[in-house]
Input
Amino acid sequence: MAAQHGDGPAMDQDAPAPDLPEVEIAGVRFGVAFTYDDLDDYDDFEFDVDVILFLSGYGFGIDDCSSALGSALSEGRFLADAEAANAWIVAAGSLGGYGTQVFTGSSFVLAPWGELAAQAPSLEEALLVCDIDSHFEGPLAHPLVQEVFDRPLSAWGALTLGLHDLCEETGNDDVAVLLDGSLDSMVVAALATDALGPTRVHALVLDDADEQGILSSRALVRNLRIDSRELSGADLGAGGDRSLARDVAEAHLAALAREIGGIALSNADKTALALEADACTVCAARVMPIGDLYRSDVIELARLRNTISPVISRGAQNAYEVPDVDGLEECGASSEERLAYVDYVLSSYVEWERSVSDIVADHGHAEVVEEIVRRMNDLELARAGRGVCIMASSKTLYDARNPIGMVWHDRSREEDERADADDQGDVILPGAEDSLGVRYESQSRRIRDVREMLDFLRDFSLGGGLYPEGFGDVSLDDKSDDDGSERGHAWISPFSEN
Output
């Protein structure tokens, strides 16, 4: 039985098997996994289980197809898990918004040989019951056909569900959006309408002399049938200062949200928050529906929404900007290709935690990559206080933040500078062998030696080798010494990951 509900360190291969749950019920041995690491352990170590219950605590992430559970079986990890562990996988997926996380359901029951025995729908509450015979070796009489994973459609469903539940949880019946002619603003308005219904969405249409933008915004209002009012350039009183005009428009958006008794939504996407200083200035919005999606993903969502019904005009579909980065024109022939390169660098650095050197090694353009990463880190302070974003990836910019004002900037390193470089042998400095008879090791070898030494010291300290006498882990049964004196707390490891 798998019910969709509302809530929900990798091991060294040389270490003993981790202490994972094993429960026997009616002759069937069950294991319980909460994380991907737990599943890896059931795969890697010889646990004698027939069924693994996977109680997922992962919210939906557009970069992690496995987070969609049953609707992404064909592209996720669970087929390999079932085969490696030779066990049934029963995944219970949570459903709905929990804070800023979103869970999309789609619980499933998967046979060890890879056939799908049962699956609950995505984005719907369901109680799934499936009979399992742990001695049965297949094939199933009536296996279900695995879905073809639709990434943009899953993301749209997750965001609308998350926005709806967030508004319900916070008691905000209505939302205010600023339609400024940009594709981002069109997508936010459409998301809000699908999530809450047209009567609960109120648009402030910005007329700032961009004829195409104002036409696209008016067309969207008509197509979505939402309430709107216009804000003219004269009302802004900015005297041609675009940044000031945007700040004044944000103030009007805050006034509209106050009038309707709701909240204002931001149009900022993840690319803007990472690289564009203007997106991090005055902001009346407290919720960012697309703040955890890169602009390339937003373009995909706009195309998806238009296949459902063409609410976004043709002119607005190209109303997006590519961040201004020196040298970026060499990274793609079109605006969309250059934007895709920017978002690839950001996602590689943030979600996939790859080094600048690795990114450059794969796709070149070292100066562009370094500038993108440097700018993202430099805007850390500007992003503070921007409100919350609905989580739609495995790692938000908030999770990837660095200390404000950090002087260190990542740069691409040559092969012989990198710690994982192949051993190049000893290096003899010119004239050193003749005069002093000294041979110098390569830098990569020295770095490896230092890392091995620090790893040893860290393990030594965690094992108690650096604890002073009388210090250590205090068990529940031994909180004092023989003389009755209380023991102190153990030191934490003095060795960081740096």
The two ends are 45 Å apart (CA to CA). The first helix runs from residue 36 to 44. The first strand starts at residue 2 and ends at 3. Residues 99 and 346 are 25 Å apart (CA to CA).
